[in-house]
Design a protein that fits this description.
The chain has a 7-stranded mixed sheet, with helices on both faces. Strands 5-10-7 form a 3-stranded mixed sheet. By secondary structure, the chain is an alpha/beta fold. It has 14 helices and 10 strands.
Length: about 375
């Protein structure tokens, strides 16, 4: 192969450097996040032998607003947990469906269910941060486990979700425990898109926490201390943003020493996939509304991976079109990138219980979300 033209043509040299740097960054990202999550050992488990003296009391907190259908099917899985001392606090917020009747019936059978009913919006803010904060203040235990009405433990036979999440509190200085919430699998391309999107988002925040740089969490499976919430004024500084009860709070309070990650199948939760593309698109829009509060350096760091994907494919395509660089090397670079990506994503997928079709098609999904997330950022939620 003749590389003389590469060394003398400044444009070719610049594109070659861009392609090489992008490839290195992407390989490092796949290894540090996806591959690391697949082989993450996490914190050592406590030896309890069902001894309640080693298991602190826990309060499970969730807010319901016209979620009667979800509560009817999912709440019993939280109430039936195999744990010696826990309560479930449900805040019924402005519900007009049969939520109150379902909660009343369940409270008659489960004495550890505490129902807090709010019939008016006392502070005028949108979103569920106000009722959620009321639920936290109503909880009697310091360790809180947070979920949503549509969530249920992934393992509905062992009922060890609380027991597994509490394993994250192995040190006295641990205040936040991050968990994983998956999506119920269905054999359709739309479901595969949701599976990959959830996997990519989860690996990003779980991988960052495993690298001792936590920046967010998922309120569908999250735990932190009630004292941390009260001592840092809860959501008071971002009540004006409807979303982000989990995202912003963890972002502002998570530190490398006070945050741990639990990646045990018993600790996973699952939710049903969004039924339509429009609802899924709105959910993804809500998820990014809080990113404006991230620090400048965090925004830059989260921009590195999509920018590297764009530059890798763009520079490679330009080199191929210009015919000034050996196509065999470009093909080898592409094969290396795709192979390492699939292997790395496969490690995380197997660890988190995601089906093989997701990591096999991950290169295609990556390109799709590069375009979709660009439009999502350019056209966020409209505000009155």
């Amino acid at each position: 192969m003749d590389f003389t033209h590469v060394l003398t043509d400044h444009c070719t040299m610049a594109l070659t450097i861009v392609a090489a740097l992008s490839l290195v960054i992407l390989c490092l990202y796949y290894g540090l996040f996806y591959f690391r999550i697949g082989h993450y050992r996490g914190v050592p488990r406590k030896k309890n032998d069902d001894g309640s003296e080693n298991l602190p009391p826990v309060s499970v907190v969730l807010t319901a607003q016209n979620d009667g259908e979800w509560l009817r099917t999912n709440l019993v899985y939280l109430l039936e947990q195999d744990y010696p001392d826990f309560e479930v606090v449900v805040v019924d917020y402005l519900s007009t469906d049969d939520t109150q009747f379902i909660l009343r019936l369940l409270s008659e059978n489960y004495k550890h269910l505490k129902v807090v009913s709010l019939h008016e919006n006392a502070n005028g803010y949108q979103g569920l941060k106000y009722p959620f904060s009321i639920g936290i203040k109503s909880a009697k235990n310091d360790i809180l486990l947070l979920a949503e009405p549509e969530c249920m433990p992934a393992d509905t036979t062992r009922f060890h979700w609380i027991r597994s999440m509490v394993q994250g509190y192995v040190h006295d200085h641990t205040d936040i425990v991050l968990g994983f919430c998956g999506i119920v699998y269905k054999n359709s391309p739309f479901n595969w898109l949701q599976q990959y999107d959830n996997l990519d988002y989860s690996v990003e925040y779980l991988g960052a926490a495993a690298l001792r740089h936590p920046f967010t969490g998922n309120g569908r499976n999250l735990s932190y201390r009630r004292s941390l919430f009260l001592n840092h004024d809860g959501f008071i500084y971002h009540y004006y943003i409807p979303d982000g009860a989990d995202d912003i709070f963890v972002n502002q309070n998570a530190r490398r020493r006070n945050t741990s990650v639990i990646l045990s199948p018993d600790a996973y939760t699952v939710v049903q996939p969004q039924p339509s593309f429009g609802q899924w698109h709105r959910y993804r829009k809500h998820r990014i509304t809080t990113h404006s509060l991230y620090s400048f350096w965090l925004k830059c760091a989260r921009f590195v991976k999509p920018l590297s994907v764009l530059l890798f494919y763009l520079s490679g395509a330009l080199l191929l079109a210009m015919q000034t660089f050996p196509w065999q090397i470009l093909a080898a670079a592409l094969a290396l990138k795709l192979a390492w990506q699939i292997v790395s994503v496969a490690q995380a997928s197997r660890r988190l219980g995601v089906k093989p079709v997701v990591y096999i098609l991950s290169p295609l999904f990556e390109i799709y979300f590069l375009i979709a997330n660009t439009f999502l950022t350019l056209f966020p939620l409209s505000k009155k």
